[in-house]
Amino acid sequence: MSETQNSTSQKAMDEDKKAASQTMPNTQDKNYEDELTQVALALVEDVINYAVKIVEEERNPLKNIKWMTHGEFTVEKGLKQIDEYFSDAPIVVSYVGDHQALVHRPGMVRFRENWQKNLTDAKYSFMESFPFLFNRV
């Protein structure tokens, strides 16, 4: 490499170092390190709080609503709040008799108490018919 090219390269490198030192903070500065540490700690705290929130929502998917006091209570407001509370929860209630293909769901088929009584009576009669299978204590 010629002397001129070498000095030109050196000048360019020196200018780059000078520009970098003007734009970059002095990492040896104690205040800079303290400030950087505080920003990092705040960021870590935010991430941890967000992670805790996500985990809590996974454990308790139902949102917590502000329930009214007994002085504010009316039937209409109570029904509205109950609907609001259960709007997030897909709750399925069904009744299936012993090995029946028909599934009884509230609002779809009216559940009759005598169905349960008939089923219990039929089981009891069956058990009495075969005492050697079902020993009573």
UniProtKB/TrEMBL annotation:
<dbReference type="Pfam" id="PF14469">
    <property type="entry name" value="AKAP28"/>
</dbReference>
<protein>
    <submittedName>
        <fullName>A-kinase anchoring protein 14</fullName>
    </submittedName>
</protein>
<dbReference type="GO" id="GO:0034237">
    <property type="term" value="F:protein kinase A regulatory subunit binding"/>
</dbReference>
<feature type="region of interest" description="Disordered">
    <location>
        <begin position="1"/>
        <end position="32"/>
    </location>
</feature>
<dbReference type="InterPro" id="IPR053084">
    <property type="entry name" value="AKAP"/>
</dbReference>
<feature type="compositionally biased region" description="Polar residues">
    <location>
        <begin position="1"/>
        <end position="11"/>
    </location>
</feature>
<dbReference type="InterPro" id="IPR025663">
    <property type="entry name" value="AKAP_28"/>
</dbReference>
<dbReference type="GO" id="GO:0005952">
    <property type="term" value="C:cAMP-dependent protein kinase complex"/>
</dbReference>
<feature type="compositionally biased region" description="Polar residues">
    <location>
        <begin position="20"/>
        <end position="29"/>
    </location>
</feature>
